[in-house]
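Support reply, case 0932

Customer input (verbatim):
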Amino acid sequence: MKPTLALSGLVMLACAALPAQERVVVPARNTSHPRQVFVKTFNHAIIVKTYEGKDVIVETGTDRTRERRPPADTAGMKRLDTRGGLAVTEEDNVIHVNTSMTSEGPVTVTVPADTSLNLQTHNSNVDVTGVRGEIVAHTFNGHINLTNVSGTVVADTFNGPINATMDGVDGSKPLSFSTFNSKIDVTFPAGLKANVAVKTNHGDVFSDFDVNMSAGPSLQADNSGQGKYRVRFDRGLTGTINGGGVQISFHTFNGAVYIRKGK
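Our regenerated output:
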């Protein structure tokens, strides 16, 4: 097992040079396979962008506990909670990023394009641009915006829209887009081959693909043991695009679903 990076010193040096920001550079140690980046935070937005380099760069605001004036009744005492606002570890191309509740600003991660992501926040947004890999994005109160991404996507939020533009789709893995209180708007390449499943309880479904859709009641066995059946009408739709292919699901409770055809 490789040791994780000891980053506290790097963070403190960065803070000395940039007092309003914490910044960590994770060097590329193994280029034989793509990076995986896990980001977990609570109240902060997550922004991921790509560049031509090989390192992963993580930036966020400073830890506010370092800047607070101590109470008057602590004269002659030292604060013991010296933990910084940003923690980054790496092992075998797997990078974990965590922030404290007291750090400020968004978490901005700059990565090589062929990086896989697992992004989790609770009370803010997720924005990803240009990544080619597996993307898992989760938030509770916020939007998810994925711009010019490729690969596979699992995106879910509760209070916020999902907007995605995909330049390419990995046909070997299913995709999923789910929200509760907003719309889902996804653009796919014109040559997409997919089986789609769409459900919206209070909204409509729109697409400029030639989608062969079907809808109908499903029969479910009654659990009473009497051999009875009941018919349940479900607003879920299923269908195929360009003859079928990768499985893609869309689910929202209060909102419309837009399945757009790109170039």
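We compared this against your earlier run and they match. Two observations from our side: Residues 1-19, 217-224 have pLDDT under 50 and may be disordered. The longest strand covers residues 144-156. Please reopen the case if you see a mismatch on your end.
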